[in-house]
Design brief:
The protein is α+β, with helices and mostly antiparallel strands. It folds into three domains: about 180 residues; about 140 residues, TATA-Binding Protein (2-Layer Sandwich); about 60 residues. The protein has ten helices and twelve strands. Strands 1, 2, 3, 4, 5, 6, 7, 8, 9, 10, 11 and 12 form a twelve-stranded mixed beta sheet that branches. α1 crosses α6, α2 packs antiparallel against α3 and α3 packs antiparallel against α4. The longest helix is centred in the N-terminal third of the chain and has 60 residues. It starts with a helix and ends with a strand. About 15% of the residues have low confidence. One of its GO terms (biological process) is spore germination. It holds the Pfam family YPEB_PepSY1-2.
């Protein structure tokens, strides 16, 4: 009988130990899941605080009421988003209440300014320090969410804090909140813009070139490859537009090129080869790039920007409108030039060949002192075509302006209705 009782007791102990470790393992998995949840929420909230601070900077930039409408709306929206993020975090109620009230004042203040109930000057005076406070909070949360020791800190400060302070909330309910957090609320949607798709190039009215004519033109454009092995194929019937694809091989050089069948216009070019350690100067690079553009009959373009890596220069060009001399960024060409000798390594002229339709537009002068607030300096000014919210190409003043308080911005202003099309802070 004693032996039987001992066996039952042993089995009970084993069952208890197995159950204990099973529950402990389950709780550990749940702790990890919750730690990931709160880590994601901290990251999201930190990023939103930076965006909110940037939007406040936009409201400090302008004093024109029309120009202020979008930035003020962004401030109201983002302040509400950050409040939602803070409310989802299990931080102490006093801290949460303080920041929720602070963000509420920012959002409500933006609405009052937008409705004309608070002078913009008063708002800008108050927000000069508020933007710094928001970035400080963002930095604190980013530090809390640092990779080093992140899991242990978040579990002790957030997960266990939540479980201990709110005894009514069971582990099961917490697990359901994690599940709800990880599920997607909205399905993936297809692209809503057709401009990402390739165009059929119907506007090209040139006659089609033959394979022999294409080969001859290739040798004229790239004389250094005239003795290369060349193989030309035509695009398939279901291609978005008819083109020739050329493969070439000469010694250590191999590459590809695409030309439109109508007119034989160069669409793209790619060359691969080993590289030397020598480097040409910036002036030499620009001179070689200019010669390439002229030889391809792309001389109605202007260099917009360039950057480099360890083997090549990457250049961006934009078409210049024949009427206004404005840059059409949508009609762009990208070049890749070797750093060792300036040889052409790559070209992409797809956007240039597609060619945007540009409508005539009036150019009305702007009094920048009426538009911008505080002390500012316009460092660059030119005309450019950029898209508005309706994806229409609009002629705009492109300004690089500096405000000593908030930094340097690139701003695009519609030349006809003076709408702020885009505004970005420069590094």
């Amino acid at each position: 009988m004693k032996k039987f009782i001992w066996i039952i007791a042993s089995v009970a102990v084993v069952i208890f130990v197995v159950y204990h470790f099973s529950v402990q393992a389950k709780n550990t998995r749940l702790e990890n899941a919750l730690a990931n949840q709160y880590s994601n929420q901290l990251t999201s909230a930190s990023e939103k605080l930076v965006k909110l601070s940037d939007s406040i900077d936009q409201t400090l930039l302008f004093k024109d009421q029309a120009a202020l409408q979008q930035p003020l709306e962004d401030v109201w929206r983002l302040s509400s988003d950050v409040r939602a993020s803070i409310s989802a975090l299990p931080i102490d109620s006093e801290t949460s209440t303080l920041w929720m009230n602070y963000l509420s004042r920012i959002g409500n203040g933006a609405t009052l300014v937008s409705n004309g109930k608070v002078p913009i000057e008063e708002w800008q005076k108050n927000m000069t320090s508020a933007r710094d406070n928001l970035r400080s909070l963002s930095d604190q949360w980013a530090f809390t969410n640092r990779e080093d020791g992140k899991r242990d800190y978040i579990i002790s400060s957030f997960v266990q804090n939540k479980a201990n302070k709110d005894s009514v909330e069971s582990w099961k309910a917490l697990g359901n909140s994690v599940k709800a957090y990880t599920e997607s609320d909205f399905p993936m949607t297809a692209s809503e813009t057709d401009q990402q798709k390739k165009k059929d190039l119907k506007h090209i009215e040139d006659s089609e070139v033959t394979v022999d004519q294409m080969k001859q033109k290739f040798m004229e454009l790239f004389p250094e490859l005239k003795d290369a092995t060349i193989h030309i194929t035509e695009s398939s019937e279901n291609a978005p537009y008819p083109f020739y694809h050329i493969k070439f091989h000469k010694g250590i050089r191999i590459g590809y090129a695409d030309f439109t069948k109508k007119g034989g216009h160069l669409l793209s070019y790619l060359l691969e080869r080993p590289f030397d350690n020598t480097t040409i100067s910036v002036e030499q690079m620009k001179e070689k790039a200019s010669k390439y553009m002229k030889s391809f009959n792309y001389d109605d373009t202007s260099l917009v920007e360039y950057r480099e890596n360890h083997i090549a220069w990457h250049l961006s060009y934009a078409r210049k409108d024949s009427e206004s001399d404005a840059l059409i960024y949508a009609d762009g060409i990208q070049l890749k030039i070797a750093k060792d000798n300036g040889e052409l390594l790559g070209l992409n002229a797809m956007e240039y060949i597609q060619k945007e339709k540009i409508a005539p537009q009036e150019v009305k002068p702007i009094d920048y002192k009426e538009l911008f607030s505080g002390n500012f300096t316009v460092e660059e000014e030119r005309l450019a075509f950029v898209e508005n919210k309706q994806l229409q190409q609009r002629l705009a003043y492109e300004l690089v302006m500096r405000n000593d308080s908030i930094g340097t911005y690139r701003i695009y202003i519609d030349t006809e209705n003076h709408e702020i099309l885009h505004s970005e802070k420069l590094p």
